Fold:
Amino acid sequence: MATATRLRRLGAAAAIAAAASGAYLIQPSITAADRGRANLVAEVRQRISDRNTSVPPRAAQESALISAGAGNPLDILVIGGGATGAGVALDAATRGLKVGLVEREDFSSGTSSRSTKLLHGGVRYLEKAIFNLDYGQLKLVFHALEERKQVIDNAPHLCHALPCMTPCFGWFDVVYYWAGLKMYDLVAGFRLLHVSRYYSAQESVELFPTLLRNGKDKSLKGTVVYYDGQMNDSRLNVGLACTAAIAGAAVLNHAEVIGFLKDKKSNRTIGARIRDNLTGEEFETYAKVVVNAAGPFCDSVRKLTDKDVKPMICPSSGVHIILPDYYSPEGMGLIVPKTKDGRVVFMLPWLGRTVAGTTDSNTEITLLPEPHEDEIQFILDAISDYLNVKVRRTDVLSAWSGIRPLATDPSAKNTESISRDHVVCEDYPGLVTITGGKWTTYRGMAEDAVNAAIKSGKLTPQSGCVTSNLPIVGGDGWDPASFTVIAQQYTRMKKSHGKVVPGVMDTAAAKHLSHAYGTFAERVAAIAQNENLGKRLAHGYPYLEAEVAYCARNEYCESAIDFIARRSRLAFLDTDAAGRALPRPGNSWKRSNLQKMQSFMMGSTMSSQVCEFNFCGYIN
Structure:
């Protein structure tokens, strides 16, 4: 009876989904405003696509913030350089507004670099929408699927479609997941990545050789494969910040807001006092509106206005681990919707390794959340139930924890409900807070936040939001085959025992550069060739010394952590390999800095001071 009810609800929801997805197919007529928007997009796109373009130097960005005085304020000052904050800066700048952004640490130093690496609509949310007949939840899935496709289109070098296999150990599971994932396809509409399909048990183990076919109490009946998106999260975040800078925003990492400026008559927030954490110098920046996009730390920012503010963040911890590549085949993920204790577990190929997770538990907000051993063991135990290989603790190459800022709306009547959607509010005049949501919907969140800021400050943008069809730096004109040009036309000149020797720009290095830097990859390859910086930073990984130089000059990379953790992903992929790579760049490391970096990679508590990294030989 329960089975029949569940299947009937799936069928009933299909009609709702079809009707709603049809609404997304209606295209508005072209207006004069649309033509103006197209011109603005073309102008910004031209700057972004210019392969000789460079971001303004950090000193110029700081100078622009300092010059924003009471008589010449910014339109919007953004606090937080994660995905949402960088998205807000890009959205506002491309509307013709005068924008600044400050980030206490580095772009993507918090939650935005510690994600699941998935761009997804939310299969679980769709299931809840169907069985609770909740049209509101269904709309959230529609929106997320729409945003998923836009993110992939705007950053094709950093994002791609990934097939995800759902194992079925009963024939009801086959029917249930097949129907549910077909519903997922239907909801996606014309933004569908690829059509889901069923594979027999034999086909499934051929596609995923480590998948368990016969267990103690179960035998594989088949799998249903569907598609979601995957990304290199921190490089996408850094790309957003750099694109915002190219579009005209003054973005500054390692700059912390230590207090707000208030209008004495109205008590409205009119700017902030900022400390440059690299130099210790402090300055004031005025703005008509301040947008608080500090993620899990947004309550800390709100407390700068009111020490007794009621918290709106309910932090949730998600732990992930990195395993060797043989745990999952290249190009196929494994997602188990319900483990024995009801949680979701997944294994996904990512940058030549396997990322597995995740947990979802209450946590405290800390700068560097630490993955606990019991959480790591839970993930290992959960995936071992579905694999035919021995799952060993010694295979864990890296582990990290990210804090997801689940939010409550302080203006809502029922403040006990925690939203999986984002929340935009202005509970203090001049301070707009945006939090909650997920990586996939960062662009829509940013749009909502900018709209709220425009309303709050009575701003006059030159156009509406244009980011739905705006590539990030390196994405415009990128082709998956572009790595062949790098492999054929460049060599890796490297220093060895006091001599400069040529090395082959092998396929692995060429593909890595192409996917990490998009159309700007040739600039990195040219540095490797012309400046003798073609040596690999760590054995078994494609990262080159030339990338340190490029990132220092073009991506606001100011410290060792900035590069090892965010510009490259070595600290997340393999802590031992990252440790071996540390002494090389600049050859001016101090033992204390090595310890700090290793502490960061292990997820332990670390001083908030940035590690010194000698870029002197790279910046010029």
